[in-house]
Automatic annotation (TrEMBL):
Domain Amidohydrolase-related: 6-308
GO biological process, one term: secondary metabolic process
UniProt-recorded name of the protein: TIM-barrel fold metal-dependent hydrolase
Cellular component annotations (GO), alphabetically ordered: cytoplasm
SUPFAM superfamilies for the chain: Metallo-dependent hydrolases
One Pfam family linked to the record: Amidohydro_2
Stored InterPro entries: ACMSD, Amidohydro-rel, Metal_Hydrolase
């Protein structure tokens, strides 16, 4: 079988971005302690070795960690145009979860319009938090409401919590799943999930600790003030959304996830290049150990993503040479 998997968490590191943000802030968040050496060509070669037909690109943490607002806005556009160039250079191989210059609301609304209307993005990627502000905060409501109006796919990637530095552990180990959980709680109990019912959220890494804590969060429905924010109930809201299996294709995490949601809401993801190619291969291998039948594996690896983002299939079908590119950004 040729490349068939669709990777919904695959990250870009454009040279201009690494130069602006710095290699050290990127490196300190991840287990390797090193900023990955990356190019579009590096991704394509790893994808070909691991049966990945298409990778949906997104910017990972630390995101647009720049002090100057104008620089944040410009870098978001640079990253989005960079992925558009990748799509031209390697037809059919890359999708785009666009970067937004949050916390600037007006600039983010402008970038949503550019990403969808000019670039044809497959969705957007939001970080779990921006400073101490989580996604359900009223400050972000105009952005979430516009994404809801567009019935957008929104991939949520964790970042480092403010002042979180337990024993100097890399943020990716504990703080990333914890921050995803905080973001989900913020979206639940701000009423954002209930209000923005046409957004299809994808949460990274099996939702962080959400599957483990889902019933505990549902206990908050006993309080009328919290219940009013989740009129359909916490569990029903969590079941509506999607979860990727980056770093999660093991029996401990996967069993909890699939007790919460059906297989049709689970998506393959590699977290490359922040997680190395061995992890990319290990995720695919791990799915084979979980007692899934071939149809379920196919759903996770490809079919669910295509149902969620049909544009990926059109891009694949229109690619004259899926495994080859002009090399313009290799």
């Amino acid at each position: 079988m040729g490349p068939h998997r669709i990777d919904v968490q695959h990250h870009l590191l454009p040279p201009a971005y690494v130069e602006a943000v710095g290699a050290e802030p990127i490196a300190r968040m991840i287990v390797s302690g090193k900023c990955p050496v990356w190019s579009p060509g590096v991704s394509v070669e790893a994808m070909d070795r691991n049966g990945i037909a298409t990778a949906v690109m997104s910017l990972s943490a630390p995101g647009l960690a720049l002090a100057d607002t104008a620089a944040v806005i410009a870098m978001a556009r640079t990253c989005n145009d960079y992925v558009a160039d990748m799509q031209r250079d390697y037809p059919g191989r890359f999708g785009n979860f666009a970067t937004l210059p949050l916390p600037d609301i007006d600039a983010s609304l402008d970038e949503i319009a550019y990403a969808f209307d000019t670039l044809g993005a497959d969705g957007v990627c939001l970080l779990s938090s921006y400073g101490a502000t989580y996604l359900g905060d009223p400050a972000f409501a105009p952005v979430l409401d516009e994404l809801n109006r567009r019935k957008a796919v929104v991939h949520v990637h964790p970042t480092e919590s403010v002042d979180a530095n337990l024993l100097g552990l890399p943020a990716a180990t504990l703080e990333f799943p914890f921050d995803t959980t905080r973001a989900v709680a913020s979206l639940l109990f701000s009423g954002t999930f209930a209000r923005c019912r046409d957004i299809r959220f994808i949460f990274s890494h099996a939702g962080g600790t959400v599957p483990f804590l889902a019933a505990r969060m549902a206990r908050l429905e006993r309080r009328p003030d919290f219940k009013a924010k989740v009129p359909d109930g916490v569990i029903a809201e969590l079941k509506r959304h999607y979860y990727d299996v980056a770093l999660s294709a093991n029996r401990f995490t996967f069993s909890a996830l699939t007790e919460l949601v059906g297989i049709d809401h689970v998506l393959y993801a590699s977290d490359f290049p922040f997680a190395g190619e061995d992890t990319m291969a290990g995720t695919a291998a791990g799915l084979q150990t979980l007692g899934l039948d071939p149809a379920e594996i196919s759903a996770i690896e490809r079919d669910n993503a295509l149902a969620l983002m049909p544009g990926l299939q059109r891009a694949e079908a229109g690619a004259a040479a899926p495994a080859m590119g002009t090399g313009g950004r290799a």
